[in-house]
Design brief:
Layout lengths: L1 H6 L5 H54 L7 E2 L5 E12 L18 E6 L14 E3 L23 E8 L2 E12 L9 E14 L2 E6 L11 H7 L5 E3 L5 E11 L6 E12 L2 E12 L3
Antiparallel strand pairs: 1-2, 2-7, 3-6, 4-7, 5-6, 7-8, 8-9, 10-11, 11-12
Length: about 290
Amino acid sequence: MGRQRGADTGFTLVELIVVIVIIGIVAATVGLFIGSPIRGFIDQSRRAALTDAADLALSRMARDLRVALPNSVRSSADGHAIELLRTLDGDRYRAEPPGGEDDRLTPGIADIAFNTLSPLGGSEGIAPGARLAVYPLGEAGSEPYRDAVLTPAGLGIGRSDVTVGSAAESRITLDGAHSFPFDSPSRRIFLVEGPVSYLCADGLLLRYAGYPLQTSQPGTRAALEALTAPGASSVIAEGVDVASCDLRYSVSATSRRHAVARLAIVIERDQEAVRLLRQVHVDNTP
């Protein structure tokens, strides 16, 4: 008789259904409290990733703008493109004694050799294809995209170490004679890598480099890709859609040395959008 009762022990169907209902109620209650924070965390993570992507893109543009050749920044009328001449280094050229005439740079006179007071280009030397610029004012006769303030494309530049008196200097030699039109009051000379453009087009933010200087800004994707060699462009904001951007450069009405680049970008992913704005001071002291 005892064995019979042991065989009948267990859960009834009613008890099982009650347990299932209770578990469902508990799960629904827990989900009510946990689901919202989880969704909030996912949304916050997505927005943080978007913000990081936009901030990285703006930081990349700001880094190039801070080393732009004075008075070389220009933006397109629609605000979709901004261009600059990127400098690699800067120095001061010899214009006063000691040293002979061959050691000095005299603007207005064609020259093939002169001295700088420290190694122009640093330890890496002068990169192939680099150009020199003196006193780019950005005005008629001294515009870097048009005038002789910049050495011609293809003009070779060499550097060697020399001693003037007891001072170590660098000897800069040009493959051909060049005359800089204006003398810099502070004797500044810039080593210029070349033009760089940032462009918003087709949902992308693109960076172009390594193309020849143009008197008019190439402000479209077609124009830049026609000038740029394959592989010389790169996508700046990866994994997102660039919904819109407004890249503007403005100069103070009282002085060209006070200029600001205003960079605004809206990026999207998974129906989420983030807008970031950054203003970059551009040093136009030539």
